[in-house]
Design goal:
The protein has helices spanning 2-16, 122-125, and strands at residues 25-28, 34-39, 51-57, 63-70, 76-79, 85-89, 106-112, 115-121, 134-135, 138-139, 142-143, 151-153, 158-163, 168-172, 178-181. The protein is built from two helices and 15 strands. It is globular. It has a domain at 22-141. The chain is mainly beta. Strands 11, 12, 13, 14 and 15 form a five-stranded antiparallel β-sheet that branches. A four-stranded antiparallel β-sheet has the order 1-2-3-4, with no helix packed on it.
Length: 182
């Protein structure tokens, strides 16, 4: 009986670590004033035909469309507190990403009101790409910071992340330019 229970818990634990494939989902800004809905494209083109819509939450629970973006789908996105900027964090092991060298894979893309501001490849942010190792979700090139995972900082008007190498990166929100501190 213990063996069966152990086996069952092991299988459930392994499945819990698996990533769900492309699907539609929603996130909110920190204070909940904005909602971004990420939609996967049609079967076979989930990533290339994905699209997203940002809404402002109105009084009475109504939604007003603010902007939209298209041509991509991502497992991990972050929405700024003011609903204007979206960060798309990449390097997942799915779709076409499997066929691309890790260093050439998307690490971060910043969008301002639906328009691409700037894209960074993993090799733009990580010096020793060969030191990265694959996980079930892809290559984790970011590390933990004093803020946890990569996120927007309203008090600095930027997107902040730390790489596995400990390099601190700040991306300003009007043009997506990068400042590095070690």
């Amino acid at each position: 009986m213990r063996i069966i229970l152990t086996l069952l818990l092991t299988v459930v634990g392994c499945l819990g670590g698996m990533r769900k494939g492309p699907h539609s989902y929603a996130i909110t800004s920190r204070d909940g004033d904005f909602v971004f809905v990420m939609n996967a494209g049609p079967e076979g083109l989930e990533h290339e035909r994905g699209f997203g819509i940002c809404y402002k939450v109105q009084a009475g629970g109504k939604f007003e469309e603010v902007w939209r973006t298209s041509g991509w789908w991502s497992q991990w996105i972050e929405l700024s507190w003011d609903g204007k900027t979206l960060a798309r964090v990449g390097c997942w092991s799915s779709g076409d990403q499997d066929e691309v060298e890790v260093g050439e894979s998307l690490a971060l893309a910043l969008y301002r009101q639906g328009k691409l501001l700037k894209e960074y490849k993993v090799s733009d942010l990580v010096e020793d790409v060969d030191a990265l190792y694959p996980t079930t979700a892809g290559y984790e090139w970011w590390g933990e910071s004093e803020l946890g995972e990569p996120k927007f900082r309203s008090w600095k008007d930027d997107f902040y992340l730390v790489t596995k190498e400990g390099v601190k990166n700040s991306f300003e929100l009007s043009a997506g330019s990068r400042t590095i501190t070690k």
